[in-house]
């Protein structure tokens, strides 16, 4: 079977990464994002410190890597973006399974709308770092002078020029990269940005380690609380962190794997991607908590008494306060916010590629047309909702529902349908082993088909019950209905509409390679080659 088999029946050959290194760097660039820097350190600290690394590694090995392999196998074997791949995987049931692909595409579309806003904030604060524009009150500067969040309203259409302009620039850059294609756009950005990100963050971490109080910060992070291991919520937090940080179960790795050559090692690069992502998270934890230790030292308090050790508060309130206190603060701030912007951008283009590839294959249009069309619509919606004075509020609620309900539901449905309903686990395991140097055993099917849906299903049900009964933060229920449950409605509608749109060229005239069950002569050749 040729490497140039057309996608979705189109006449043009399928794009490809230039090689294994390009794929690995791009996959790592997708996985390493904002959550590595501002989510992992806080999650680890609040869930047992050093002891958290045990459930974290267990979750990585038993759920993160197995589902990553599942994404790779589906995308590579069925050679398409999520809707194409799932339709082909489903065989006679392909029509309804295609809707799962469009559900994942819509998740990526929604995430792209607000993810760009955070990158725009990071770019703004990169500039602000040089003159410490936030002054002595970073919180007041962020929420008041910069974002201009109103005190008496949760929804306005009052635009904030300081957010709108960098947001528009981020969208222009993303559209250009996506229009250039897989090798000249996505891969080239990751080949440049990922090494820059690692170098910049290493410099930042080394500098942080020599700050007064850094040791106290590291002790606060890594001192193990062994009793935490008896708390089921700590284990759930570990699975949640691994799941969200690896970019799995919403189309990214399915799409990325589809651009690999047919004869490509899948599992060994997957291990490199997974452990590189986790290594960066631990590096981020070291840098963040060494820096928090310095802030606690300057304020004369314990690290446990500090506020804002995760999320937006950590990045845009706590870190600016630290930068103002430390020698050489402007350079440190520029490194931090530059790293944040680069990590965000490499993840952003991977999220948007899920949507671009799906539309390109469904309508059989050029990459440039798909990038400009989808990118233009996304940019307008992103600016409309997330460059206003209430953009942060909309972002917070939409992110909570999209990630904790949308992506988790996608993973649960995918694992159950593939392993139990269609019973394609043995075929996908065969595909991985036929091409890869690191074989996966029958236990892989058990991890994907039993452990993953059980853990993720518990997470999903528990989160839905909490959001229904307790709401979220102090937001009014009507607002949660619009931007929270409304986001889930958008995902479902996107799945239905995407499936109903007719294909320009049918994707069904396709033969997966290598053949399954394996041909007898192929089995003998494999034995002879051992």
Automatic annotation (TrEMBL):
Regions crossing the membrane: 21-38, 50-70, 102-128, 159-180, 192-214, 234-259, 271-297, 331-359, 371-395, 401-422, 443-465, 477-501
Keywords from the UniProt entry: Membrane, Transmembrane, Transmembrane helix, Transport
Record carries keyword Kinase: no
Main location as per UniProt: membrane
PROSITE patterns registered for this protein in UniProt: NA_NEUROTRAN_SYMP_3
Pfam families the record matches: SNF (PF00209)
Any coiled-coil regions, as ranges: none
Recorded topology in the membrane: Multi-pass membrane protein
Subcellular location: Membrane
Record carries keyword Membrane: yes
Annotated InterPro entries: Na/ntran_symport, SNS_sf
PANTHER family: TRANSPORTER (PTHR42948:SF1)
The name this protein goes by in its record: Sodium-dependent transporter
Organism expressing this protein natively: Microbacterium aquimaris
């Amino acid at each position: 079977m040729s490497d140039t088999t057309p996608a979705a029946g189109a006449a043009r050959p399928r794009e490809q990464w230039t090689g294994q290194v390009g794929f690995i760097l791009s996959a790592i660039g997708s996985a390493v994002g904002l959550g590595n820097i501002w989510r992992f350190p806080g999650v680890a600290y609040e869930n047992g410190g050093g002891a958290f690394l045990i459930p974290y590694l267990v979750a990585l090995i038993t759920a993160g890597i197995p589902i990553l392999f599942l994404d790779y196998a589906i995308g590579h074997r069925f050679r398409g973006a999520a809707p194409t791949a799932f339709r082909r995987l489903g065989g006679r049931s392909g029509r309804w399974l295609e809707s799962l692909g469009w559900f994942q595409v819509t998740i990526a579309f929604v995430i792209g709308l607000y993810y760009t806003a955070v990158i725009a904030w990071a770019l703004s604060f990169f500039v602000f770092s040089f003159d410490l524009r936030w002054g002595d009150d970073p919180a007041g500067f962020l929420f008041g002078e910069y974002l201009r969040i109103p005190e008496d309203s949760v929804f306005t259409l009052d635009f904030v020029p300081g957010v709108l302009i960098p947001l528009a620039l981020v969208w222009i850059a993303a559209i250009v990269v996506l229009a250039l294609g897989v090798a000249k756009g996505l891969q080239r950005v990751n080949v440049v940005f990922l090494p820059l990100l690692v170098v910049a963050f290493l410099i930042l971490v080394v500098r942080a380690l020599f700050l007064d109080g850094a040791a106290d910060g590291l002790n606060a992070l890594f001192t193990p609380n062994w009793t935490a291991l008896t708390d089921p919520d700590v284990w759930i937090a570990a699975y949640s962190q691994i799941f969200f940080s690896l970019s799995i179960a919403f189309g990214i790795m399915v799409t990325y794997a589809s651009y690999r050559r047919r004869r490509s090692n899948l599992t060994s690069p997957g291990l490199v991607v997974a452990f590189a992502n986790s290594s960066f998270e631990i590096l981020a934890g070291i840098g963040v908590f060494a820096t928090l230790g310095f802030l606690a030292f300057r304020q004369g308090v314990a690290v446990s008494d500090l506020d804002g050790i995760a999320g937006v508060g950590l990045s845009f309130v706590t870190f600016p306060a630290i930068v103002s206190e430390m020698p050489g603060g402007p350079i440190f701030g520029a490194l931090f916010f530059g790293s944040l912007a680069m990590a965000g951008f490499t993840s952003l283009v991977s999220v948007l590629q899920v949507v671009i590839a799906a539309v390109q294959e469904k309508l059989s249009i050029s990459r440039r047309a798909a990038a400009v069309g989808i990118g233009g619509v996304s940019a307008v919606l992103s600016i409309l909702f997330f460059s206003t004075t209430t953009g942060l509020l909309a972002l917070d609620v939409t992110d909570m529902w999209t990630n904790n309900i949308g992506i988790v539901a996608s993973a649960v449905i995918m694992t159950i349908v593939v392993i139990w309903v269609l019973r394609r686990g043995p075929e996908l395991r065969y595909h991985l082993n036929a091409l890869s140097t690191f074989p996966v055993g029958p236990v892989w099917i058990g991890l994907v088909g039993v452990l993953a849906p059980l853990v993720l299903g518990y997470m999903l049900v528990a989160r839905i019950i909490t959001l229904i009964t307790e709401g979220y933060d102090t937001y009014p229920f009507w607002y949660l209905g619009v931007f929270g449950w409304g986001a889930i409605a958008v995902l479902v509608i996107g799945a239905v509409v995407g499936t109903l749109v007719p294909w320009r060229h049918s994707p069904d005239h396709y033969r997966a390679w290598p053949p399954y069950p394996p041909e007898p002569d192929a089995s003998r050749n494999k034995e002879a080659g051992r």
